[in-house]
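Exercise 7.
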Amino acid sequence: MISDKLSHITKTMKSSMIRELVASTRGIEGLISFAGGFPSPKTFPAETLSKLYAQVLAEEGSTVLQYGASEGDPLLKEELQKWEGLQIDPARILITAGSTNAIYYMTRALVDPGDVIICEAPSFLGSLVAFEASGADLIGIPLDMEGIDLVQLQQKVDELQSAGKRVKFIYTIPDFHNPAGLTMSYQRRKDLIEYAIAMDIPILEDNPYSRLRYSGEALPTLFKIANEEYLNDEVVTEIVSFSKILGPGMRLAFAKGSKTLIERMCSWQQKINIAPDNISQRVAARFLAGGFMDPHIQMCCDFYRPYLNKMLDAMAKYLPSYIQYTKPEGGIFTWLKLPEDMNADELFERAKAHKISFIPGSKFYPTGQERYNNLRLNFSFSTLEQIEEGMQSLGKLMDEFYT
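Solution. The predicted structure, written as tokens, is:
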């Protein structure tokens, strides 16, 4: 039987619990779902992209339909440098088929089974399962309102190193965190970089959301701070996704880091994907060159702002006073903290019967480190009317469930 021949990693590998939970609610008529992490299709620049795809195929079909460079399209790299105001060696940029692939490549480049990856607790499930699939030991560090708790980080790293464990990198989502909705403060970013440099521990900065800012002042990325303020081009690797901006179906992202690490990540891409999609890369290059990107992002922010405001207003209006929640200035998620003795996994099952869906917070922690009194809400995919109705129903359900 083939099941007897599966590798140990494959047998023990976790699937995406989010996808399974979303699937468990599929087909429920009238369901109001705050579960997924989908951007609104109304923000997709479909008309512009369709014209660019046609142009690229008509004018460059013989080139873009051929095998491409494993490190990514040089024209796209050039446009990305202009867009971001970068002045770095193009060899420090790797184009990938989505950000999860880039995260996986960095993990495979650095991690041997039994090595430690430090992550925030909670953190993005998609990355956690990729880390665990590599055989890494995951250690979660709690968040406070400014980001990862550096006191607890230092204590845990000291413990791990005293026990002979190798800490390979720190994984963080500093802007509009998934799932917590928090943004790391500027001072915390600097403090984290200084600690990482002193301890010689690389940082993986996951950046899918920073440009979806609806209020407040934008903060420089960890990558930018490390390179410009500390003149360090090795400590931070930043991975930027286009999924929440152009559309997740394009499967397009890019990584920036040290030349040595990017080369090793490219070696993994050669083995797994050969190269990212040539056509989508060239379309994205034309999208940037045509000056479409910044106005498009502004449109996305203008579109999502009322949805975030509606979610925050509805939570304040309908949720019980004992429920705490984050108030993000952007992104697509907010995070609810329930009383310690209130189980969001059990609430999820009750909510399904009332045609409300969300993701229980326990799914965002490393295995064995789960907390059950949290949940994540997405506000980017529902209508304004559904947000109002859904929060009213969820508030009533919480009171019934907790009393």
